[in-house]
Amino acid sequence: MAKPTRTRKAVRQRRARPATTKTRVKKTLAKPKIPRRNAVRRMFHLRRVQAPDSGGEVVRTIVRDVDRYAADALYFARHFDFTGRDLEENFATLRAGAGFRGPVRTALWFVPHFLYPYYGGIHTILRFADYLARRHGVRNTFAVQGVYDVRENARMAAEAFPALADSRFVPLPEDRLVDSLEPHDVGICTAWQTAYPLLKDNRVRRKLYFMQDFEPLFYPAGSVYGLAEETYRFGFDGICNTPPLQALYERYSGRAVAFRPSVDRDVFYPPAGERHLGTNVRLFFYGRPFGIRNGFETAAEALKIVKRRFGGAIEIVSAGGDWNPADYGLEGVVTNLGRLPYRRTADLFRTCHIGLTLMMTPHTSYLPLELMACGCVVVTNGSPWKEWLLKDGSNCLFAQPVPSRIAETVARAVENPDLRRELSRRALEDAAAWPDWDAEFDRVMGELFGK
Predict the structure, then answer these.
(1) Domain WsaF N-terminal, which positions (predicted)?
(2) Taking the mean position of all CA atoms in its chain, how far away is CA 227?
(3) Which residues are within 8 A (CB) of 241 and not within 5 positions of it... i.e. 6 or more apart?
(4) Quick one: which H or E segment has residue 300?
(5) Residue 328 CB neighbour total at 10 angstroms
(6) What is the 3-state secondary structure (H, E, C) of 65-84?
(7) Residue 173 maps to a domain
(8) Dist CA 420 CA 354 (whole Å)
(9) Which residues pair with residue 187 across a beta bridge?
(10) How many CB atoms lie within 10 A of CB 55?
(11) 428 located within any domain
């Protein structure tokens, strides 16, 4: 029997078939890409399905995609690695620089590629670099990981902090070795991926780890978790954003110093008049479906309960990311304003009575601080990591991180204007006592360098 001839149509159909898992992984690893900060986000994708008890309502459900995680984990394992010799040379550099007390004239920052300079993590990194430039005359260099073009990063940094306008920004793609970087007095890594190039850069006199969360928790227990956790054992001195993170870092790597975050007081401040009057309430929801640690799904279900209970007596607004409420069953429940300019965020907070923001990792998050400074009543999940700042029933309300308990806590604040007024008053008193940024950074430099 003759072999059938393959038509052009058949060839096109064959080429259009989905790639196998092996092919997808191979193609993923072959492409030059920016190191991914949160691989777990790609472990899940949304699929439209009809809920069995919804009377035909179409909803979106989350479906696990192991192939995507595997591709990301393989990428990370391929690019973030070290040998025994790397460790020996790193620790030799640390021993040699242990007595270095300055003066610090040059600082090399290893940073991930960033798209917006006002998000909490990168904003704090740039703020500290700005402080070093203004108060100590330090010349900052930023090695931006995983990219070839850093002009936009430089522009955004200067926009947020004009003192950084004369800083150097250099690309650090995967194919560029740290040996190509100039020597500096200090090298500072700012995320777990950036700790790997700093490990291998032994032309800095002292190595520092700028830690702003326990980043292994950004991933499932697995390959990427292990790669992230190991960076805390590299021996760098830590600069930790909040005292609880200092305690965590010191379990792994010895010495660290903590700073207590603050806010821009000329941006985040309370409104002039009384707001906690009347029966209608406006609630701000920090909603970011792509921010796994912010507990979006639990909060979304809680807000559906709240809206059913109070109807038009409560208005719920969200900001922080671009997403469609209808995709999450929140149409008619939440109005999403997307990502707002920095100062407009504070303007929004001043119009709200209550702020709902969840955080499932050890960092407290900047949202409670900013909301408190604007006189909002903060509702958040309770955690020992937050108790250095947040006091349940005194300057905020803690809620167990399940929908009904969050809804009950929000309802308590909605129905009690006297409680809101008292919580707001105490929160503003606490905010007034927070040290300013320069004072905290002065203390950090004093502990690290005796300045």
Answers:
(1) 180-235
(2) 18
(3) 124, 210, 211, 212, 213, 258, 259, 261, 363
(4) helix 296-310
(5) 21
(6) CHHHHHHHHHHHHHHCCCCH
(7) yes
(8) 8
(9) 108, 207
(10) 6
(11) yes
- CA dihedral of residues 90, 93, 94, 97 (deg, nearest 10): -160
Residue 37 pLDDT grade (very low, low, confident, very high; cuts 50, 70, 90): very low
Q: Which of 42-56, 68-82, 184-198 has the highest mean pLDDT?
A: 184-198
- Judged against a pLDDT cut of 60, whether residue 179 lies above it is answered with yes
- Helix (H) / strand (E) element for 381: namely strand 377-381
For 318, list phi and psi in degrees, rounded to 5: -130, 155
**Residue 232 has which token pair?**
């805390």
Q: Which of 79, 105, 137 is the last residue of a domain?
A: 79
Among residues 185, 21, 14, the alpha carbon closest in space to that of 106 is found at 185
Looking up tokens 């969050």 gives 406
Mean pLDDT of the chain: 87
Q: What are phi and psi of 201, to 5 degrees?
A: -95, 100
- Closest listed residue to residue 63, CA positions, set 50, 52, 47, 51: 47
Percent of the chain with pLDDT over 90: 76
Phi, psi of 184 (to 5 degrees): -140, 160
* Enclosing domain of residue 297: 281-432
Q: Is the pLDDT score of 388 beyond 60?
A: yes
pLDDT one-digit tens code per residue, 229-246: 999 999 999 999 999 999
Of 371, 379, 368, 353, which Cα lies nearest the Cα of 275?
A: 353
The backbone torsions φ and ψ at residue 186, rounded to the nearest 5 degrees and listed phi first, read -130, 145
Residue with tokens 């559906």: 304
Locate 359 and state its tokens: 């955080």
- Residues 107 and 217 grouped into a single domain: yes
E strand or H helix at 441: helix 437-449
Contact by Cβ (8 Å): 62, 44 = yes
Is 300 part of a structural domain of the chain? Answer: yes
Question: What is the DSSP-derived secondary structure letter of residue 392?
Answer: B
The pLDDT, as a whole number, for residue 277 is 66
Structure tokens at 132: 């070093």
Same domain? 216 vs 96:
yes
For residue 88, which of 231, 192, 234, 253 has the smallest C-alpha distance? 234
Model confidence pLDDT, tens digit, residues 389-439? 999 999 999 999 999 999 999 999 999 999 999 999 999 999 999 999 999
Cis preceding-peptide flag for 261 (omega within 30 of 0)? no
- Inform me whether the pLDDT recorded for 344 exceeds 80: yes
Backbone φ and ψ of 375, nearest 5°: 85, 10
pLDDT over threshold 60, residue 10: no
Structure tokens of 341?
A: 């300019």
* Phi, psi of 54, rounded to the nearest 5 degrees: -105, 0
